[in-house]
């Protein structure tokens, strides 16, 4: 019997084993299930967009670009446009986010870094409970409880910041002996407060979840080097959770853009571009659709679906930009040193 030389035997044994990247068994089932779910989501989303776009074609052909520049909504006069509702949608969403974002960030930081261990589960449950409250409840809360107090705050803003056009209210005297609070009610400002309370728990949950994943070793290292609790949060937790902060804010913005019932209950319908958020009146795309859908004719229905198609595209763009930003600023990137 012949034997291989020692160096040939070593070469044979050192040959790398072929590794297959194909999933097998449970992994194969999991990959197939995930691909199926992802494909179904894409098909449903694409189907919604195609349906809205197809239904919007008659309106876009009839009105052209004036549908986007006209602010009036007068079906009886064959004058329809969404300029006013688009501006109202953006303003209500921005007001909501300007209130909800700092509150969500502070709440998430407190729960993850400052709250006693025995209270954290309770606080997390309370935040989740806020997210489960129906939107109509938030609308009733804003209309019957917050309206009066928000009107007082709006009057204070008009009195002290009225030189800024955004906070100016026409036909109202905030310095009068008996000021008329009704001039400051049913405004985009009040609607934005209600929407902010709906957006806050969603954004807070995302931020808190990311903050809780900060490596404990890095936090302890910062404290060992002499950093204060806030210094550790600023140098470790916030950079690590950058992606979660952006993702939570964008998720809240998407919710604020599409909120319907709360805005419909609070905001007094008005079809004019209102850059002054403290004044009575305003409208959003979703509130317009909800308020006019029931008694709309076929032509008006096409116009409402066209407005919904525009809102769908805006939300899609916001979510796409958010995904891009989150991917470029992944959580933990700021702590890699």
Structural class: mainly alpha
Which band does the percent of strand residues land in?
under 5%
CATH evolutionary superfamily: MetI-like
What is the string of helix and strand elements? HHHEEHHHHHHHHHH
CATH class: Mainly Alpha
Please report the distance between the alpha carbons of the first and last residues.
Answer: 60 Å
Biggest sheet overview: 2 strands, antiparallel
- Helical content stands at 55-70%
**Unreliable parts:** none
Number of helices: 13
Shape, per Cα inertia axes = flat
- CATH-scheme architecture: Orthogonal Bundle
Number of domains: 1
Task: Output the CATH topology.
Answer: MetI-like fold
Q: How many strands in all? A: 2
Major β-sheet strand ordering: 1-2
Mean of pLDDT: 83
Cα-atom radius of gyration: 27 Å
Furnish the topology, listing elements before pairings.
Elements: H1 6-13, H2 26-63, H3 66-69, E1 73-74, E2 79-80, H4 83-114, H5 117-132, H6 135-161, H7 188-211, H8 216-224, H9 229-240, H10 242-258, H11 261-266, H12 285-292, H13 298-328
Antiparallel strand pairs: 1-2
Helix pairs in contact: 2-13, 4-7, 4-10, 5-7, 6-7, 7-10, 8-9, 10-13, 12-13
Structure description:
The chain is mostly helical and 337 residues long. The chain has a single domain, classed as MetI-like fold (Orthogonal Bundle). Helices cover 69% and strands 1% of the residues. It has a two-stranded antiparallel sheet with strand order 1-2. The protein is flat and about 85 Å long.
